[in-house]
Design brief:
The chain is an alpha+beta fold. The chain has one domain: Yope Regulator, Chain: A, CATH 3.30.1460. Helix content is 38%, strand content 34%. Strands 1-2-3-4-6-5 form a six-stranded antiparallel β-sheet. A hairpin with a 2-residue loop joins strand 3 and strand 4. The termini are far apart. This is Molecular chaperone Tir. It holds the Pfam family CesT_Tir_1.
């Protein structure tokens, strides 16, 4: 277990995120912040980066209108972006940060970006999940 793992854990706890699962061997956390709309968010310490990733919804079929809307919204997201999984079916939020220089403010900014995205874009996300 690296010092980065403990550093990230301390930051998450200071930011009042609930750690619902922790895997020391894999150096990852599953966290939630119900007040911010965040559930089952993975925070994975993969030296030299930390990966922040969460499932937003699954696509039932390919839809170019949804892809276009997500790409256009990516331009407005402060930190992180929409991404597709390797099968192109799951729409994820994903951000990566440098572990070596990571501070609590930087992690908080990334998490706040996701919270803002969820609050501003939730109706569209819900409608996309139903198509």
């Amino acid at each position: 277990m690296s010092t980065n793992f403990n550093k990230v854990k301390d930051y998450l706890l200071n930011l009042e995120y609930n750690i619902i699962q922790e895997d020391k061997a894999e150096e990852l956390f599953v966290v939630e912040n119900p007040d911010g709309g965040i559930t089952n968010l993975i925070v994975d310490c993969e030296d030299p980066i930390v990966i922040i990733e969460g499932l937003l919804f699954e696509l039932k079929e390919e839809n170019t209108d949804i892809y276009k809307s997500l790409l256009m919204k990516n331009r407005e997201i402060i930190h992180g972006a929409f991404a597709l999984d390797e099968n192109g079916k799951k729409v994820l939020f994903r951000d990566t940060l440098q572990l070596e220089t990571l501070d609590q403010n930087e992690l908080e900014a990334s998490l706040n970006s996701l919270e803002m995205l969820l609050s501003e874009y939730s109706e569209e996300i819900i409608s996309f999940s139903k198509l």
